[in-house]
């Protein structure tokens, strides 16, 4: 039970923490409705298998600069998505077609999974917090270690999905003009998140 509660607490905190993935979930919900937002929220379930394997097998063997370069690549990708969102906002209209919503959901999952994979935060979180917790718990209670991981992902995906649903329900109250402005703001926030990521990890990438 302790592992479940700890996993839920860590996952909920990570789920609502500001960052590129949360902004992208909100942007996806604005553009494609609940389906796209919830699918984007599920990105950690797709990308974190590589994060976990990389953390346990590779990250500790790499120089610290590697994490910095990963972050800079992620910052460039997030900035590109943000700029594209701002450009797309010029002629954007609220999505009503089920086919368009499914297409946006597929694109949202692809973008969100790539953002999560290129962000250094999941890697660092698994390397410094969740990884050691899981390994320590596994030594004494394997079932509790599994429960900890499951609870973490239920909470992180669930909290982001809830935010996506709330945003998607509110989008129908917007006019096309307000919708375009909301997309512009979301795009600017993505660019700002990219800049913050680059500023944070630039010294790490170029540390001598």
Element layout with pairings:
Blueprint: H1 2-16, H2 20-41, H3 43-57, H4 64-88, H5 98-118, H6 120-140, H7 142-171, H8 176-205
Helix pairs in contact: 1-7, 2-5, 2-7, 2-8, 3-5, 3-6, 4-5, 4-8, 6-7
Structure, described:
- The chain is mainly α and 208 residues long.
- It has helices at residues 2-16, 20-41, 43-57, 64-88, 98-118, 120-140, 142-171, 176-205.
- Helix 2 (20-41) crosses helix 5 (98-118) and helix 4 packs antiparallel against helix 5 (98-118).
- 41% of the residues are buried.
- The mean pLDDT is 85.
Assign an overall shape: globular
* Class inferred from helices and paired strands: mainly alpha
Number of helices: 8
Q: Helicity, in percent?
A: over 70%
Describe the sheet with the most strands.
none
* Helix-strand pattern: HHHHHHHH
Radius of gyration: 18 Å
Number of strands: 0
**β content, as a range?**
under 5%
Q: What do the pLDDT scores average to?
A: 85
Uncertain runs are: none
User: What is the CA-CA span between the terminal residues?
Assistant: 45 Å
Summarize the structure.
The protein has eight helices and no strands. By secondary structure, the protein is mainly α.
Keywords:
208 residues, mainly alpha, 86% helix, 0% strand
């Amino acid at each position: 039970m302790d592992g479940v509660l700890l996993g839920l607490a860590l996952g909920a905190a990570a789920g609502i923490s500001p960052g590129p993935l949360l902004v992208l979930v909100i942007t996806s919900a604005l553009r494609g409705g609940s389906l796209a937002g919830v699918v984007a929220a599920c990105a950690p379930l797709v990308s974190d298998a590589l994060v976990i394997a990389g953390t346990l097998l590779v990250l500790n063997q790499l120089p610290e600069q590697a994490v910095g370069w990963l972050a800079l690549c992620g910052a460039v990708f997030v900035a590109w998505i943000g700029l594209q969102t701002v450009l797309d906002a010029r002629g954007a209209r609220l999505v009503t077609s089920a086919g368009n919503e499914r297409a946006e959901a597929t694109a949202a999952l692809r973008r969100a999974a790539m953002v999560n994979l290129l962000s250094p935060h999941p890697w660092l979180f698994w390397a410094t917090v969740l990884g050691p917790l899981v390994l320590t718990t596994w030594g004494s209670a394997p079932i509790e270690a599994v429960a900890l991981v499951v609870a973490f992902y239920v909470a992180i995906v669930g909290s982001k999905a809830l935010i996506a649903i709330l945003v998607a329900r509110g989008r129908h109250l917007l006019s096309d003009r307000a919708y375009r402005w909301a997309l512009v703001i979301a795009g600017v926030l993505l660019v700002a998140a990219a800049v913050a990521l680059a500023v944070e990890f630039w010294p790490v990438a170029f540390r001598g």
